[in-house]
Design brief:
228 residues; alpha+beta; two-stranded antiparallel sheet
Length: 228
Protein backbone atom coordinates (compact mmCIF):
# COMPACT_ATOMS: atom_id res chain seq x y z
CA UNK A 1 0.00 0.00 0.00
CA UNK A 2 1.54 3.31 -1.12
CA UNK A 3 -0.89 5.59 0.69
CA UNK A 4 -4.04 5.85 2.76
CA UNK A 5 -6.84 8.22 3.78
CA UNK A 6 -7.54 8.26 7.52
CA UNK A 7 -11.22 8.51 8.44
CA UNK A 8 -10.26 9.41 11.99
CA UNK A 9 -8.23 12.58 11.42
CA UNK A 10 -9.10 13.17 7.73
CA UNK A 11 -5.45 12.95 6.72
CA UNK A 12 -3.88 11.63 3.52
CA UNK A 13 -0.45 10.00 3.81
CA UNK A 14 1.83 8.72 1.03
CA UNK A 15 4.62 6.21 1.51
CA UNK A 16 8.13 7.62 1.25
CA UNK A 17 10.47 6.44 -1.48
CA UNK A 18 7.91 5.80 -4.22
CA UNK A 19 8.48 7.19 -7.72
CA UNK A 20 7.18 10.63 -8.61
CA UNK A 21 4.54 9.13 -10.92
CA UNK A 22 3.43 6.67 -8.25
CA UNK A 23 3.23 9.48 -5.68
CA UNK A 24 1.02 11.59 -7.97
CA UNK A 25 -1.23 8.65 -8.80
CA UNK A 26 -1.49 7.62 -5.15
CA UNK A 27 -2.31 11.18 -4.05
CA UNK A 28 -5.18 11.35 -6.56
CA UNK A 29 -6.36 7.88 -5.50
CA UNK A 30 -6.52 8.95 -1.85
CA UNK A 31 -8.15 12.31 -2.69
CA UNK A 32 -10.83 10.31 -4.55
CA UNK A 33 -11.37 8.26 -1.38
CA UNK A 34 -11.70 11.49 0.63
CA UNK A 35 -14.25 12.92 -1.81
CA UNK A 36 -16.29 9.74 -2.29
CA UNK A 37 -15.93 7.56 0.77
CA UNK A 38 -15.48 9.87 3.74
CA UNK A 39 -17.63 8.88 6.73
CA UNK A 40 -18.76 10.88 9.74
CA UNK A 41 -17.61 8.57 12.52
CA UNK A 42 -19.72 10.51 15.02
CA UNK A 43 -22.94 9.72 13.17
CA UNK A 44 -25.05 6.66 14.05
CA UNK A 45 -23.91 3.55 12.11
CA UNK A 46 -27.08 3.50 10.01
CA UNK A 47 -26.33 7.05 8.78
CA UNK A 48 -22.67 6.55 7.86
CA UNK A 49 -23.34 5.34 4.29
CA UNK A 50 -20.31 3.08 4.17
CA UNK A 51 -19.41 1.55 0.79
CA UNK A 52 -17.89 -1.93 0.57
CA UNK A 53 -14.11 -1.90 0.18
CA UNK A 54 -14.10 -3.53 -3.26
CA UNK A 55 -16.28 -0.71 -4.64
CA UNK A 56 -14.20 1.93 -2.84
CA UNK A 57 -10.94 0.71 -4.36
CA UNK A 58 -12.35 0.26 -7.88
CA UNK A 59 -13.78 3.80 -7.84
CA UNK A 60 -10.70 5.47 -6.35
CA UNK A 61 -8.20 3.76 -8.69
CA UNK A 62 -10.40 4.34 -11.74
CA UNK A 63 -10.62 8.04 -10.88
CA UNK A 64 -6.83 8.19 -10.41
CA UNK A 65 -6.20 6.47 -13.75
CA UNK A 66 -8.64 8.78 -15.59
CA UNK A 67 -7.18 11.96 -14.11
CA UNK A 68 -3.60 10.86 -14.75
CA UNK A 69 -4.43 9.94 -18.37
CA UNK A 70 -5.91 13.40 -18.90
CA UNK A 71 -2.60 14.97 -17.92
CA UNK A 72 -0.51 12.55 -19.97
CA UNK A 73 0.58 10.30 -17.10
CA UNK A 74 0.28 6.61 -17.97
CA UNK A 75 -0.45 4.46 -14.91
CA UNK A 76 -2.02 1.57 -16.81
CA UNK A 77 0.70 -0.91 -15.82
CA UNK A 78 -0.37 -0.55 -12.21
CA UNK A 79 -3.99 0.63 -12.42
CA UNK A 80 -5.34 -2.10 -14.72
CA UNK A 81 -4.14 -4.91 -12.47
CA UNK A 82 -5.29 -3.06 -9.36
CA UNK A 83 -8.82 -2.51 -10.67
CA UNK A 84 -9.04 -6.05 -12.04
CA UNK A 85 -8.08 -7.48 -8.65
CA UNK A 86 -10.62 -5.48 -6.67
CA UNK A 87 -13.44 -5.86 -9.23
CA UNK A 88 -13.10 -9.64 -9.43
CA UNK A 89 -16.41 -11.29 -8.62
CA UNK A 90 -18.50 -8.12 -8.89
CA UNK A 91 -21.54 -8.12 -11.15
CA UNK A 92 -21.59 -5.97 -14.27
CA UNK A 93 -24.55 -4.01 -12.89
CA UNK A 94 -22.47 -3.08 -9.83
CA UNK A 95 -19.57 -1.91 -11.99
CA UNK A 96 -21.88 0.16 -14.19
CA UNK A 97 -23.37 1.75 -11.10
CA UNK A 98 -19.93 3.09 -10.21
CA UNK A 99 -19.21 4.41 -13.70
CA UNK A 100 -21.13 7.68 -13.34
CA UNK A 101 -19.52 8.30 -9.95
CA UNK A 102 -16.06 7.70 -11.44
CA UNK A 103 -16.66 10.00 -14.41
CA UNK A 104 -18.15 12.81 -12.30
CA UNK A 105 -15.40 12.71 -9.68
CA UNK A 106 -12.62 12.54 -12.28
CA UNK A 107 -14.10 15.55 -14.09
CA UNK A 108 -14.28 17.53 -10.83
CA UNK A 109 -10.65 16.75 -9.97
CA UNK A 110 -9.44 17.60 -13.48
CA UNK A 111 -11.24 20.94 -13.31
CA UNK A 112 -9.76 21.71 -9.89
CA UNK A 113 -6.23 20.75 -10.96
CA UNK A 114 -6.43 22.74 -14.18
CA UNK A 115 -7.67 25.72 -12.18
CA UNK A 116 -4.65 25.50 -9.89
CA UNK A 117 -2.31 25.16 -12.90
CA UNK A 118 -3.81 28.26 -14.49
CA UNK A 119 -3.50 30.18 -11.25
CA UNK A 120 0.15 29.19 -10.79
CA UNK A 121 0.93 30.16 -14.37
CA UNK A 122 -0.70 33.55 -13.85
CA UNK A 123 1.25 34.12 -10.65
CA UNK A 124 4.56 33.12 -12.20
CA UNK A 125 3.94 35.26 -15.27
CA UNK A 126 3.03 38.23 -13.08
CA UNK A 127 6.13 37.72 -10.95
CA UNK A 128 8.39 37.47 -14.00
CA UNK A 129 6.89 40.51 -15.68
CA UNK A 130 6.26 42.72 -12.69
CA UNK A 131 8.82 41.80 -10.04
CA UNK A 132 7.28 42.36 -6.61
CA UNK A 133 3.52 41.77 -6.55
CA UNK A 134 0.55 41.51 -4.23
CA UNK A 135 -2.27 39.01 -4.66
CA UNK A 136 -5.72 38.92 -3.11
CA UNK A 137 -7.39 35.62 -2.26
CA UNK A 138 -11.03 35.31 -1.23
CA UNK A 139 -13.02 32.34 0.02
CA UNK A 140 -14.79 30.26 -2.59
CA UNK A 141 -18.56 30.42 -2.54
CA UNK A 142 -20.30 27.32 -1.22
CA UNK A 143 -21.53 25.61 1.91
CA UNK A 144 -18.05 24.26 2.70
CA UNK A 145 -16.76 27.80 3.40
CA UNK A 146 -19.89 29.16 5.09
CA UNK A 147 -18.43 28.90 8.62
CA UNK A 148 -15.19 30.60 7.53
CA UNK A 149 -16.52 33.73 5.86
CA UNK A 150 -15.86 37.06 7.57
CA UNK A 151 -14.65 35.32 10.74
CA UNK A 152 -11.89 36.99 12.81
CA UNK A 153 -8.75 34.90 13.15
CA UNK A 154 -9.11 34.36 16.90
CA UNK A 155 -12.64 32.99 16.47
CA UNK A 156 -11.41 30.51 13.87
CA UNK A 157 -8.76 29.33 16.31
CA UNK A 158 -11.27 29.08 19.16
CA UNK A 159 -13.55 26.96 16.96
CA UNK A 160 -10.69 24.68 15.94
CA UNK A 161 -10.92 25.79 12.30
CA UNK A 162 -7.86 26.30 10.10
CA UNK A 163 -7.01 28.46 7.10
CA UNK A 164 -6.69 26.11 4.14
CA UNK A 165 -5.45 27.22 0.72
CA UNK A 166 -7.93 24.86 -0.97
CA UNK A 167 -10.83 27.02 0.29
CA UNK A 168 -9.54 30.17 -1.46
CA UNK A 169 -9.38 31.43 -5.02
CA UNK A 170 -7.10 34.06 -6.50
CA UNK A 171 -9.14 37.14 -7.46
CA UNK A 172 -6.48 39.74 -8.20
CA UNK A 173 -2.72 40.23 -8.75
CA UNK A 174 -0.89 43.49 -9.39
CA UNK A 175 2.57 45.10 -9.02
CA UNK A 176 3.67 45.98 -5.50
CA UNK A 177 5.45 49.32 -5.40
CA UNK A 178 8.15 50.02 -2.83
CA UNK A 179 6.04 52.49 -0.86
CA UNK A 180 2.84 50.39 -0.85
CA UNK A 181 1.70 49.03 2.52
CA UNK A 182 -0.99 46.58 3.59
CA UNK A 183 -3.00 49.57 4.77
CA UNK A 184 -2.76 51.10 1.30
CA UNK A 185 -4.02 47.86 -0.26
CA UNK A 186 -6.92 47.65 2.21
CA UNK A 187 -7.95 51.23 1.51
CA UNK A 188 -7.66 50.83 -2.26
CA UNK A 189 -9.81 47.69 -2.36
CA UNK A 190 -12.48 49.18 -0.13
CA UNK A 191 -12.76 52.74 -1.37
CA UNK A 192 -11.49 52.91 -4.95
CA UNK A 193 -11.59 49.48 -6.62
CA UNK A 194 -9.52 49.05 -9.80
CA UNK A 195 -11.76 48.60 -12.84
CA UNK A 196 -10.51 45.07 -13.44
CA UNK A 197 -11.10 43.90 -9.85
CA UNK A 198 -14.05 41.49 -9.77
CA UNK A 199 -14.00 40.39 -6.11
CA UNK A 200 -15.87 41.89 -3.16
CA UNK A 201 -14.42 44.70 -1.06
CA UNK A 202 -11.45 43.54 0.99
CA UNK A 203 -12.95 42.06 4.17
CA UNK A 204 -12.22 39.90 7.20
CA UNK A 205 -11.26 36.32 6.10
CA UNK A 206 -9.59 37.52 2.88
CA UNK A 207 -5.86 36.91 2.44
CA UNK A 208 -3.28 39.24 0.91
CA UNK A 209 -0.05 37.64 -0.29
CA UNK A 210 2.96 39.90 -0.78
CA UNK A 211 5.65 38.64 -3.16
CA UNK A 212 8.82 40.59 -2.37
CA UNK A 213 12.43 39.72 -3.17
CA UNK A 214 11.39 36.22 -4.31
CA UNK A 215 9.65 35.51 -0.99
CA UNK A 216 5.94 35.25 -0.19
CA UNK A 217 4.22 36.36 3.01
CA UNK A 218 0.49 35.73 3.56
CA UNK A 219 -1.58 38.15 5.64
CA UNK A 220 -5.05 37.33 6.97
CA UNK A 221 -7.41 40.31 6.82
CA UNK A 222 -8.64 40.64 10.37
CA UNK A 223 -10.01 43.26 12.71
CA UNK A 224 -6.31 43.38 13.62
CA UNK A 225 -3.92 42.55 10.75
CA UNK A 226 -1.98 39.31 11.20
CA UNK A 227 0.38 37.08 9.21
CA UNK A 228 -0.32 33.36 8.64
Amino acid sequence: MNGYFSLTDKRIAIKEGVSELQAVKTAIHEIAHAKLHDVDLNAPPEQQNRVDRHTCEVEAESVAYTVCQHFGLDTSDYSFGYVAGWSSGKEMTELKASLETIQTTAKELITEIEGHFTELQQQRQAEQEQGDTFSIYQLKRGDETRDLRFEPYDRLQAAGLTIDRVNYELVYTAPLTKDMTLGDIWERFNIDHPADFKGHSLSVSDIVVLHQNDEDTAHYVDSIASSV
